[in-house]
Amino acid sequence: MKFAQAMLAVAAATAMQFSGSPEAAATGKMKCDSGPQTTWKSRTDLEAKLKKDGWTVKKSKVDGGCYEVYGVTPEGQNVEAYFHPVTMEKLLVSQRGKVIFKK
Q1: CA 50, CA 16: separation in Å to the nearest integer?
Q2: Engineered SS bond to 82: which of 42, 46, 66, 77, CB 3.0-4.6 Å?
Q3: CA terminus-to-terminus distance, the chain
Q4: Residues 15-33: tens digit of each pLDDT
Q5: Pairing mode of beta strands 98-102, 90-95
Q6: Distance separating alpha carbons of residues 64 and 48, to the nearest angstrom
Q7: What does the alpha-carbon distance between residue 103 and residue 84 come to, in Å, rounded to a whole number?
Q8: How open is the CA angle 66-68-71, to the nearest 5 degrees?
Q9: Taking the model in full, what pTM does it have?
Q10: What is residue 75's DSSP assignment?
Q11: What does the domain layout of the chain look like in residue ranges?
Q12: Distance CA 101, CA 91 (A)
């Protein structure tokens, strides 16, 4: 009986680890204190701004309360970049694990 209770406790702890906010699935590279999503600018606005600045956006998503963008910089570098969803400020740009820019 004790074994079954222990297994139930492990299962419950594992479920709690992966439930809750979207930040639970974050990669850990960057975390933004960005407040409620109702105050965020849209990803479409960020992508339009980046395109205007010469970027090519391949994919964007929310990660750690930040906008994470996979794309190509105006200099031709394939990168992963993080932006604050309220200010659209660039926070981190990396290429294959090497930090190119960090605020």
Answers
A1: 37
A2: 66
A3: 53
A4: 444 333 343 344 568 899 9
A5: antiparallel
A6: 22
A7: 11
A8: 155
A9: 0.73
A10: T
A11: 28-102
A12: 8
